[in-house]
Amino acid sequence: MALLASPPKSTPKPAKQAKQADPEEALSGTRGTRFSRHLILCLVGLVMMYPLLWLISSSFKPSNDIFRQLGLWPENWDFSNYAEGWTALNQPFHVYLINSMVVVVFSIIGNIFSCALAAYAFARMEFTGRKLFFALMLGTLMLPGHVLLVPQYIIFSQLGWLDTYLPLIVPNFMATNAFFIFLMVQFMKALPKELDDAAQIDGCGPFRTFLRVILPLCVPAMATTAIFTFISTWNEFFGPLLYIQNQDLYTVPLALRAFMDSEGQSMWGPMFAMSVVSIAPIIGFFIAGQKYLINGIATTGLK
Amino acid sequence: MSVLTKQAPGAAATIAAGPPGRRKQGSPRRRNQRSGYLFLLPWFLGMLFTIVPFFASLYLAFTDYNLFTEPNFVGLANFQAMAEDPRLGQSLKVTFIYTFVSVPISLAVALLIALVLNRGLQGLAIYRSVYYLPSLLGGSVAIVMLWRYIFGNEGIINGFLGLFGIAGPAWVTDPNFSLSTLIVLNVWTFGSPMVIFLAGLRQVPTMYYEAASIDGASRWRQFRSITIPLISPIIFFNLIMQLIGSFQTFTQGYVMSGGTGGPADSTLFYNLYLYQKGFTEFEMGYASAMAWLLLMIIAIFTAINFIASKFWVFYDN
Q1: What does pTM read for this prediction?
Q2: How far apart are CA A152 and CA A242, in angstroms?
Q3: Which CATH superfamily is domain B81-312 in?
Q4: HEC string for B189-239
Q5: A291: which chain B residues are within 8 Å (Cβ-Cβ)?
Q6: Where are chain B's structural domains?
Q7: Which residues cross the membrane (chain A) (predicted)?
Q8: Cα-trace Rg, chain A
Q9: Positive or negative, the Cα torsion across A259, A260, A263, A268?
Q10: What value of ipTM does the predicted structure carry?
Q11: Is A140's CB within 8 Å of B50's CB?
């Protein structure tokens, strides 16, 4: 933990790595060993990427070809899988994409808003019980969610929230994700204390200081939170499975599962096509936000 | 919570004192106090929403609650039933095998690759991304479904083995092999501990290695006596987080088996069985008792880890 607790800033950026690598160059062996290292790394990378590439290529193959070909380049290009998959379920697939998007957007807003508030209090304010609360917050990191499951389900059903997105969204507005609080606390602690004092002298109250001074400086930590929230909410299966019965309200993972229920050889192609559609946003966000992801995971050990 | 209620009268008093009071707005420190709690307001609500269900589920574990009728206190009946439930034993077995096989393998692979990457190779960022990407996808329904077809009877794994004339088993439908496909899936996501290892390795000062090689220490010796001790807190952290995570596996088992945990309960993860009990059979008292057993198991393993860590984790401060 101690070593992990460095602010995201201090994690070396790729540009710095090249510089750091220089003294190690001598350690890193002859040309031959370096070549064999690259060879091994490439092979491992290829094996890891193969399932994904196969998925993408299969989505462009006629269903009959999918399991006959190990190769990645489709012999007969077939785009109809996408058209078929899009309309195969109760609703066209974009309905499920929009449903997921709604849950994701509100979850992101909730997480950023509530976790930033809590983190500011933990990182930069003095009040009785701060240490105790902080320890309690860290304790919830290790609490398996299923312990709370049954009572939370009862509460949500009493509130009449079943078959709505509220059980998936509202907890995010109550700073229930301790990982993000921890991430932002680490980040805010690294900012100079003088900022708050200066703002106070200029007549800012704590809330204005937070909103106008600290928050704008925390954009990287908020970006990390947003991307991680996006990925975990987009993938989330258990919550929607529990709370959403109405097929029109299905999120993308539930819709994909519906494909499996209507299983048949002819459905493989469309199913793979929609699988590609479902993971494309994650890959997109990953490519766009890599820096924040890698820094974030290095700071908190978040998955 | 208690501090919140303790604070409230104080806050009320300052407000009640009003403008004519001796302390016009309260001292800056007191103001800071109050706004500290204000900032934590959403978090307090969240804690309420955690602590109340926490104790409610402890209570329900000793009842026969089924969502439709009032809960009756039944003492230890749920725990006795659990002791005699063969499917519960099976679900524990599945979860333990999955955890104790896949966590050490994925941590070892993660450390190994991180060590190779840390040697200052060109293209580190690309390798790191390629290895990290699967860990973002491993829990998604799309990928578990893909796994089902990759390991299917006519899937690419058996197609590949067929190239060498090997007839692969029916990975998904044979109870002897179905869990191993999910272990492979978990190892496939070694990227996230790898990134954490990489961050840790970068903080090991190179001068230690320089000094050691001047003293004639071999590579292996340097790894054992410098690298391992210095990154042991990170190994420890990864181990704890991976254990806790894999004890709670759900989606993989659910999607792989279509929700049944089959074939022959071979992918019946603990949380999948808990879900079946609580939300398809509505035995919510029993499900709560199961949740508390899992909490105990996780707490025990975490405690063992913390105690054992005294002997192998090295803190440099």
Answers
A1: 0.86
A2: 11
A3: MetI-like (1.10.3720.10)
A4: CCHHHHHHHHHHHCCCCHHHHHHHHHCCCCHHHHHHHHHHHHHHHHHHHHH
A5: none
A6: 2-79, 81-312
A7: 39-57, 96-120, 132-156, 168-188, 209-231, 267-288
A8: 24
A9: positive
A10: 0.84
A11: yes
